[in-house]
Amino acid sequence: MTMEWISTSIPDVILIKPDVHGDARGYFKEVWNRREFARRGIAADFVQDNESRSRQGILRGLHYQISRPQGKLIRVTEGEIFDVAVDLRRSSPFFGKWVGMNLTAAGHDLLWIPEGFAHGFYVLSESAVLAYKCTDFYAPDLERTILWNDRDVGIPWPLVNGAPPQLSEKDARGTILAAAECFR
Fold it and tell me: Which of 71, 128, 159, 165 has the lowest tally of Cβ within 10 angstroms?
């Protein structure tokens, strides 16, 4: 099995295109291979798999965990999302910068977001299912949220019909980057 690895505008965030082998019966793809990831310099030890289903217009994020950061391997198993990673590593030349892209179930792509990033997504299709592997366990007391529309971050979310996104109460109260706890 081979995977195509594509650097994004923030080189540590990587778009991964797996080989998809399909025929009249359906398809097969490999989405995680410890040896291949290690060969590419990602020695991730995934400890938790998550899945979320959301309706069109839902925006989740921008979430991260302070002191116990999570690397995430993201994929969409149904529908389409606009997926975003924001670099929160103060030592990074990309601090405060973001990378975003559409991910679809039909496209089969995966997105590697390393530790030290906030993550969020917006649902473009009628509904979407997001599956992701995490390198640390969820710790609600350590979870933080960057405000989705922070002007300093400047993400141009592709809002369906220009309508405001649907947010959880927690996400609506997110912190601006200038006041956020970040990584070294």
Answer: 159
Domain that holds residue 47: 3-179
138: annotated active-site residue: no
Cis omega (within 30 of 0) on the bond before 167?
no
Q: 158-182 pLDDT, tens per residue? A: 999 999 999 999 999 999 999 999 9
CATH of the domain at 12: 2.60.120.10
Instruction: Select which of 63, 64, 108, 122 is catalytic.
Output: 63
Q: What distance in Å separates the CA atoms of residue 155 and residue 104, rounded to the nearest whole number?
A: 20
122 is catalytic: no
Q: pTM for this one? A: 0.94
Q: Is residue 67 part of a domain?
A: yes
Number of domains in the chain: 1
